[in-house]
Amino acid sequence: MTQTVQSTNRLYPGLADSSIEFFADGNETKVILNSRVLPFSEVSFSIIQLLDEEIEKDSLVKIHLLDMHPTSKIKRTEQFAHCRLGGLDYQGDINGGQLQEGEYWECPKRGNCKSEGILCKLPSYNGKQLQPQEVKLLQLTATNKTNEVIAEELNLPLGSFHKLKKILWSKLSIQTKQEGVMISFFLNLIQL
User: Fold this and answer.
1) Band of the pLDDT at 5, cuts 50, 70, 90?
2) What kind and span of H or E run contains 75?
3) E strands of 10-87, at which residues?
4) Domains in the chain, start-ordered, CATH in brackets?
């Protein structure tokens, strides 16, 4: 099953439909709901409950949240929404009462957070999770940089870069840079 990018809908979820979109605004977590942008503190009990049910499914997530906010359950829930769903994109985080599995976004703490990969999620495409180096490769190949410059930025010899790119293109079932750009946009790795 191949996922495709739909570029016709340029409204954020929750503005003109019944879906809900969380996003990080600096250190704050906000939500688009019922055509309004609200602070996390104004979400309903049913939304909090849905997030809490997801937290309960993973003991490691619970441990990390408890370490971050030992005295406040609502702060743990908000932190989970911030980390797991903090990217502002065009796919609702809650649709029809179903919580999406998570989304990739450029958290400023990426690379320096002990909960990285636990609270936040690396993107997956067609059921295959991407690794950090593959994410960076997709982001860089969506630019006008040459292969030589990209290889240098990834700290790879040119031959290793080409091998990594070939493996990634196969993993994503794509053949061209343009397809990689579309997937990068779909996964919220780049903004057009």
Assistant:
1) very low
2) helix 73-85
3) 21-25, 28-33, 36-39
4) 21-99 (no CATH), 124-186 (1.10.10.10)
